[in-house]
């Protein structure tokens, strides 16, 4: 085999020394995981255990959740441990669940970085009995060897075998190569293990290995024997085993498996005899080598072929086999979320395939299914995040009569004589229970035959096709034969058959009454002369003969004792007949589950066809379609509803025969999901789009509830869109809603959205503004309405200097009670626009030029609402502050401090109410909550696992909490009350810088009399314990004004920045910035103070407050954004400043607003900093956070009415593309503080009132319809991923070309061009691509093609992002430009013009 890249062990661990510790049915019960999908489940009555990734759930058998065990925690390498009390950095990925019922233990094994196992109390999984790190394994089950229990584990290759994981296996094991394990179990003394081998190649095979349970583990492993399971139909077996199930209690050992064909979704369900071999000779398997002693040459394993392929079906995913009396019942899960039931008889012949359950969404059924051990009447089926308990049968649905119950052909169901209903057998105690016959192809409960004895007498033999349950044959069984000549003599009544002698009366009618205790079955029969049935053709004669109860022998009809009763003999004769009906074609052979009306079937010899039979694969209850019209060569049919999949069609004759062969395929029903737009003006003809889930071709009609008028629609090629124009209504009807329905066959499907009919739009005025030398921006005003008109709804033509010019639609916006629509006109003329014609639907409006122009500057904000993925809502109290230290978020809501994970799931909370005692000073949470600890400062110190919280409980107070578990208080101390605080580093020592405003807490001994700034040392007392003991001698900076509000602060390298609002006079407020340099000792840090005033005013005296601010990370010079509010108004500005500190000169500086220790010289006026750019003016902005993304600056802004805005800023600090990405439900202000999620940096944490929400920074996936849609979103977060063919974040597109927006967002086209003339007078076409690439760099393959009507043009140069070609001297030549960037193609048609020939007047237009 050559060098082996990996080996994968099968591990045996002794438990004695276990030190590491359309019969569609409605399900009755289900469990839905709120977080995570089902990854595995196990059953041990009366409990079910479900693994969903982050949680292990314990349910009862009704799937009601009893308790769950959180599976996230932190793995610590030395000493090796897994701590659930710490943050969820790692998850315990369970792969094995093995219940040991007699010991009340559940073994769970998997990996937490390294292989890991836990022993849980089977009765209460939150009780962990034992835990131990071991080898990672993928499959495991319990085996018994010499009366000792072992856990057999099969481990696939894992990178955790080396590196950080200290565990190295020492147990006897089997080495495996390129293998994945599927299943295993033990029957008596034989262990069976199934695997797929060579899974990484094009030649996978399915392997079975047998182990014999011997005296020791080594001997058990050495007993290995192997076989190949081959389910192929000739040729090389290239298959995988998907799922399997052993058939319980059967000898030989029968087993079912689902095999998938390599590289396809085709699957087969097959049944094998996997009885183990009996020879004891030494065996060395070619794929598995046992470690102990086996050294001889490799032996070829035997190949097992299936006893029967039961079913071929696309994408089967799971199987469960159940033995039911004489029957085998096989449950099969599929890739589209269906559960099938298949009945298999003693001859392994499959019958009656039915769909007994469908998932709501078409997600695949999980490969593992279990039978409910109590009652064995339900199958536990997992689909995505849901586990469902599906009944194996719904016998009660067939209770109308014995015939209905019998016709269900379900071995689970039988007619209960005492209850007079269809039921399971155990629901019919001490009573006759009659069920289906052994031969499910039998279509009648009573069959008969006419027999002639040696004396020439005719006997009628009646056979009952009813089987009885465990109660045995009926106690009373009798038959009565009544004819027009009287009651006939019964010769024999022996269940299940009875006989009578018939008189020699041809065409005699006989009523047969069969009594089985209280059950009576009747049938009328007609006596025929079997030998008298003659004629042609033979196939018809044969069918008539057997249907009459006669036999067929030597091409003639005879009595049954002389001939065969098997109908197959007649089928062999059909090829001899040229007059039998045939099917040529069926129009629309693809149809929905609801069927199809007016289907045309064409063929020949159709004159005597009465009905059409529609039968699925092994369908026991075929459907029939009536013939509406018959021309002899065509039939018009209405196809009934059916189950998804392929069905066969044949033609029924008067004698019951079915001829011809064709197929139909049932597909999913199209579900109406949306209507865009959802409104129309009264005159109609607005372009509407209805989106359906799939299969739009099955929609036959679109109707509106307000009218019977038919809607003319077209179907798009994408298979999910209908397009039509809205219908007109009378203007007098006013505003109203009209519901929309789709007709599919005979069913109507409602759309979730109604069409709102509104009055006509009212356009009022227009203005024009020059934006570039060759372009005018036209702004059309209309009265505000609810039509939400889009650019595609309108066409605009303008008249300028008596010339008609088109206006290219741009966008629509709204302000107060006016809507605005903008479009651009390609013109250089400044002449007046005299007339504007606006066309929508079938209407047009004309606006004439007004006398006075109103020039409006519009900021149109498109709303791109991004749905938040996670949120935390405080039940008591609003959010007062929050801090982030990955992987946790800490939220203060007044009475509680909450610790959340980054998905904002609450992990624990610390109660913040208690009682303050003055002497000795203390805060006791165990006493009544008279006082609350009002937190103002939260400072995480990640490297010390400490969260500092400071604020006030009557007096100033601080606590040091365990960052991993805030309910653990490490230290507490009363100190000075402070309003702002953050950590700073001075000469590699950590200090807490606090800024205290004036406090009215008169009883406090350390209350600040002036606003001041202090540095508290964080000296380590005991491990993880800080001390604030130097506070009394701490130097400070004092404010010279009493009314100071500290806003924010941070440190960048050696410089500390502090921002505050200072009230100098009654109505004079200024924004101050203080710089400090980190020096030793602390006093020198405070003495290094330098100051500046931040002035965002536009002339005049600055009277502003700083509301919120954010430094721009990783930028030199130091750039910072702040929101400034104008004094006495709600007007706010977002501005960007260069706040780089001044040179660190040593000259003395005395600030006019803040005094430092020992500095006594005269005050110096601080410098004034003006903004580099005012990015945005908006009412009532409340918060800001700025993010650097490649060349872009992304600024997120919270507003006073609960919106989160996103603003794109380029390298020139020019703002673009202001969008609303989120709105709070209620219009409460966004909290002044926002944070970026530190893991992934794809979410902003936003607080509004009592809720903290995790808002995505972008929804790139919404722009995935094409490269153009993605590019037009103008979002630097988003780019087109070539390999995934979708719009995505860059980190979601590894090792692939990622194309994003250009550096210049004013660019509106992906390709621009210019015509250039070289020194030889030749004209060149230069094309430039406006697509930027990510970290993957320029595209590896970049090329351009230029195709024109005169042929392909010569390309001169192809250097990304530009390419050039030489143009022939053909004026008006049209050139198709095709630009290829690896797998991405961009095309555009250009027209060659003579640039020097563009002449005329006026010059501006020219």
TrEMBL record:
GO annotation (BP), single: negative regulation of cell adhesion
Domain named PSI: residues: 394-442, 1259-1307
Residues covered by the Sema domain: 48-375
Location(s) in or outside the cell: Membrane
Coiled coil: none
Origin superkingdom: Eukaryota
Keyword Signal appears in the UniProt entry: yes
Signal peptide boundaries: 1-23
One example GO MF annotation: semaphorin receptor activity
Swiss-Prot/TrEMBL keywords: Disulfide bond, Glycoprotein, Membrane, Signal
SUPFAM superfamilies tied to this protein: Plexin repeat (SSF103575), Sema domain (SSF101912)
GO cellular component: plasma membrane; semaphorin receptor complex
PANTHER family to which the protein is assigned, alphabetical: PLEXIN, PLEXIN-C1
Protein name, entry field: Plexin-C1
Organism per entry: Merluccius polli
Taxonomic placement: Eukaryota, Metazoa, Chordata, Craniata, Vertebrata
